[in-house]
Design a protein that fits this description.
- A five-stranded parallel β-sheet has the order 2-1-3-5-4, sandwiched between helices.
- The termini are far apart.
- Helix content is 47%, strand content 16%.
- It has six helices and five strands.
- The protein has one domain: Sugar-phosphate isomerase, RpiB/LacA/LacB (Ribose 5-phosphate Isomerase B, Chain: A, 3-Layer(aba) Sandwich).
- α1 packs across α5 and α4 runs parallel beside α5.
Length: 150
């Protein structure tokens, strides 16, 4: 599996912890930044990561900002992306299992490193279940396609 990670300056410490954690699990990880505490607007990073996932360069992505909300909003603007804000393992499991979320977002001001690792594990450990969930994901894609045609 190949995963891309990114954060703004507020999410940097947690992003670095999660990047290293993923690497310790022998997962290929590419870091799209940021790499310093200099202020950066989260939409720049979220957009870059979401495009890379949508283009198929990476199977999944992890985004971290202060709350995770901004990153989630921006990532979901990229056609084909389903990003989910998760701060507990069950939500992360369902984001992947029911919604086929390719990107997970977290807030460094909301979640601690150890719980964040458990959230990542739950998300990585789950595959899309299809079935009734596939019908719903297809409807999401149909709604998205309506707006791409305009």
């Amino acid at each position: 599996m190949k995963i891309v990670v990114g954060s703004d300056h507020i999410g940097l410490p947690l992003k670095d912890i999660l990047r290293d954690y993923l690497k310790s699990k022998e997962i290929e990880v590419v870091d799209y930044g940021v790499c310093s505490t200099e202020p950066v607007d989260y939409p720049e990073i979220a957009h870059k990561v979401a495009l890379a996932v949508a283009d198929g360069q990476f199977e999944r992505g992890v985004l971290v900002c202060g709350t995770g909300i901004g990153m989630e909003i921006v990532a979901n603007k990229v056609p084909g992306i389903r990003a989910a804000l998760c701060h507990d393992p069950y939500s992360a499991e369902r984001a992947r299992g029911s919604n086929n979320a390719q990107i997970i977002t977290m807030g460094a001001r909301v979640i601690g490193p150890e719980l964040a690792k458990k959230v990542i594990d739950a998300w990585l450990g789950m595959e899309f279940q299809g079935g009734a969930s596939a019908v719903k994901v297809n409807k999401i894609q149909q709604i998205e396609a309506m707006y791409l045609k305009k």
